[in-house]
From TrEMBL:
<dbReference type="InterPro" id="IPR036465">
    <property type="entry name" value="vWFA_dom_sf"/>
</dbReference>
<feature type="domain" description="VWFA">
    <location>
        <begin position="15"/>
        <end position="190"/>
    </location>
</feature>
<dbReference type="Pfam" id="PF13519">
    <property type="entry name" value="VWA_2"/>
</dbReference>
<dbReference type="InterPro" id="IPR002035">
    <property type="entry name" value="VWF_A"/>
</dbReference>
<protein>
    <submittedName>
        <fullName>Uncharacterized conserved protein YegL, contains vWA domain of TerY type</fullName>
    </submittedName>
</protein>
Amino acid sequence: MGIGDFVAKSARPLPVIVLADTSGSMSVDGKIEALNQALKDMIGSFGQESRMHAEIQVGLITFGGGVTQHLPLSPAHQIEGFKPLDATGRTPMGEAFDMATALLEDKEIIPSRAYRPVVILISDGHPTDDIKGPFERLTSSERAQKATRLALSIGSDADESLLRDFGNDLEAPLFHANDAHDIRNFFRAVTMSVCTRSRSTKPSEPVKIEYQPGADDDLLDLDF
């Protein structure tokens, strides 16, 4: 067997899917600006990771006024630039859930060889469309049940009951962001957890997220 007979084994995908509330209420108190910076930083960090064991992929679904697949699920190292999000309109979370379910169950986009996905829901308000059916379809889907589902409640007006039911991390069923600074703090913690998973020889095994709201801003190197 010659050298040309060997084929490099490609890294298995590790999907990270973010469902982001971009409704009008996210436009106040610097929340959308913090989210934009957090997502940009996360994608940049993922893109720099080694792909020896896992290839981190990122997808972004936004719900504000309408529902958009703002960023199709793509290898992080191939994502060039990040188009900032705008905050406007109502909160069609149910429609976003249906889009996420379709994405998770599409085996052409997420092949069977992929590692356990990470699905992140962030919101500062209550859904303004039908939520019961879409929520049940998402959380009962085979792949969503196997995924690591995380939820971030922003401020005091979020639907914490719904967000808590969405999360399936028994140690931290719901994360809180008291202000815009905490949004970046949370995403940095998630980034560290996912990067640790991608370097592991067992990337499907969850890694604890070390997140503490209200951390010192100096430690976060905030620039907004």
